[in-house]
Structures are given as structure tokens and as C-alpha cells.
Amino acid sequence: MMGLSACHAGPEMVSAPVTGYNHTSAEITRFSINGAGGPRIPPHQGGGSEVCCGVIPVQWSSGLRTIIEWDKDPNPRESLKRDQYGQIDREDYKRHSSGYSHHKETVEIPMYAEKVCALQVHFLPCDQVRVSTTCYTPSNPK
After folding, report:
1. Which domain holds residue 122?
2. What is the dihedral of CA 76, 17, 47, 108, to 10 degrees?
3. Distance, CA of 20 to CA of 69 (rounded, Å)
4. Each residue of 6-59: pLDDT tens digit?
5. Has residue 137 been placed in a domain?
6. Residue 46 domain-assigned?
7. What is the pTM of this model?
8. Helix, strand, or coil (residue 92)
9. Helix %, strand %, coil % for the chain, to 5?
């Protein structure tokens, strides 16, 4: 008779939508949280687009961290040359995008209780980034 055994591969995980909030005057051209991609976020905006999905443990534990990567356009309001059809000039775009910067930061995920509504990534001035799992948006008084 053969017995079955289960391997414990680590903590139980849950998926959560990813959303971003840009609290800066730059444009976040793309971002990811542990590889889960996030949308482009214009200056001082965010929250409107969610993408699926980031993965975190069902149960929070001390020292829980995540890796955030993002690209930033420090001059999103710069006018770019356009051709006769209204398309952005390829060379002018190449020149403009050469000013983009790439960032990577490992940040702590703050304590969460039973419910994770979303992985919210907050882009702050001076190339700082924070993560929250709250069910509230930044404009909510709670």
C-alpha cells in the first residue's frame, strides 16, 4: 500500500490587483511589483487602472518585502515634434526618452489584516516608493 504525503512549499499566497499612485511631477512610464506590471501613470494621478495581479502571502509576517521597478519621464510636458500625419517624430522621441531614468527599490509591505484589496504602489518625490494594501484610496479620510 502506498501512502501520500504533501510537501509544504511555503506560505499560502493570494493574488491582488496592482494599482499605482503618482505623487510627483514626473510621469511613471511603467512599473512592476515583484514582476507584476503596472500601467503608465501621469503626474499627480493614479488609481484609475488596475492590472492583475501581484501575489502576496495570505498572512502578513514581519519583514515582508517586495521589489518595485519603475521608469520615469522627468519632463512629461515637453512638446515633441510631429510629422504631417500627427505622429511623433521618431528621432525626437528617441532624444526625449534618453532622459528617462530606471529605478529599483526593495520596500517593506506594511502589516495587513485579513483582507487585501489591492497592492497600491505610491511613487513619492526624490525617487522614493512605498506600498500599501489598504482598501482605501489616498483621498479617503480613513
Report:
1. 13-132
2. -80
3. 12
4. 455 677 888 888 889 999 999 999 999 888 887 889 999 987 666 777 888 888
5. no
6. yes
7. 0.81
8. helix
9. 5, 40, 55
